[in-house]
Amino acid sequence: MTTDHFQHPVIDTGRAHPARVYDWLLGGKDNYPVDEAVGETLPPEARDAARQNRAFMNRAVAHLAARGIHQFLDIGTGIPTAPNLHQIVQRTVPSAKVVYADNDPIVLRHAQALLVSSPEGATDYIQADVREPDEIVRHAREVLDFDRPIALSLIALMHFVTDQEDAHGIVRALVATLPPGSHLILSHAAIDLFPELAEQVIAQYAKGGIELGFRTRAEVARFFDGLEMLPPGLVTATEWYGEGQEPPAPQESGIYAGVARVP
């Protein structure tokens, strides 16, 4: 099952976009010279971080699917990179329902790949910005049952939302719509693990017109206020794995990651 609510906004190829820079860092081809220009100025660790984020997402959603979570809302999904979230969870739960949201129009061009659901399940895509949580939830309600647990996925997203834009308030508003038994999956760039590298990345993104709000561990932990952290708690992306999963190979990471349950 798929649904179609698409509009067709114009793609701005003269300004870098986080989703397209991320695609370049992952070795993708769906980006423009302006995105590549930002990516090429970043330290090699930025590519490692992109891969680490993706691997964390894979482990986290697989773990929740195995725990019986059958609905997923993935905001800031980015350009499709196999395996996509729905492919991971529908291996375990063919009837799983997934709603994707992103604010980059180029993702819309690839939404057909995101919407190839298993016959038993459902996928949908909305062109929307996390800064408009009410709009995202309104649309997601058309596919997801907000009386049953939902996993909200915010992978490498909230460090693109500044404190002035009330990043913590946005996450609180989204989590507040979720029923008990839901989960928040979140990864976030750290300012305090490798400060010099972090400042370099922030400066290079700024030259491309993208403002970043990297945060300390305490500031990232605030996104999980009132929630029940799953083991191993708030750790780096390469340290997180669910019960019964193979531990990732030890590797330094400048990304915090965690999964928490809505009580």
From TrEMBL:
The keyword Ribonucleoprotein does not apply. Keywords: Methyltransferase, Transferase. Residues 244-263 are annotated as: Disordered. One of its GO terms (biological process) is methylation. One of its GO terms (molecular function) is methyltransferase activity. Gene3D superfamilies: Vaccinia Virus protein VP39 (3.40.50.150). It holds the Pfam family Methyltransf_19. Signal peptide: none annotated. InterPro entries: SAM-dependent_MTases_sf, SAM_dep_MeTrfase_SAV2177_type. Transmembrane segments: none annotated. This is SAM-dependent methyltransferase. It comes from Streptomyces plicatus.
